[in-house]
Amino acid sequence: MKAFITGVAGFIGSSMADRLLSHGNAVVGWDDFSTGQEPFLENARRDPHFRLVRGDNLDLPALTAAMAGCDAVFHFAANADVRFGLEHPAKDLQQNTVATFHVLEAMRANGIKTIAFSSTGSVYGEAAVIPTPEDAPFPVQTSLYAASKVAGEGLIQAYCEGYGFAGYIFRFVSILGERYTHGHVFDFYRQLLEHPDHLRVLGDGTQRKSYLYVQDCLSAILHVMNAGTARAAKHRSQVYNLGAPEYCRVTDSIGWICESLGLQPRLEFTGGERGWVGDNPFIFLDTAKVQATGWRAELSIREGILRTLAWLQKNEWVLAQR
Amino acid sequence: MKAFITGVAGFIGSSMADRLLSHGNAVVGWDDFSTGQEPFLENARRDPHFRLVRGDNLDLPALTAAMAGCDAVFHFAANADVRFGLEHPAKDLQQNTVATFHVLEAMRANGIKTIAFSSTGSVYGEAAVIPTPEDAPFPVQTSLYAASKVAGEGLIQAYCEGYGFAGYIFRFVSILGERYTHGHVFDFYRQLLEHPDHLRVLGDGTQRKSYLYVQDCLSAILHVMNAGTARAAKHRSQVYNLGAPEYCRVTDSIGWICESLGLQPRLEFTGGERGWVGDNPFIFLDTAKVQATGWRAELSIREGILRTLAWLQKNEWVLAQR
Question: Fewer CB within a 10 Å sphere, N or C end of chain B?
Answer without folding.
Answer: C
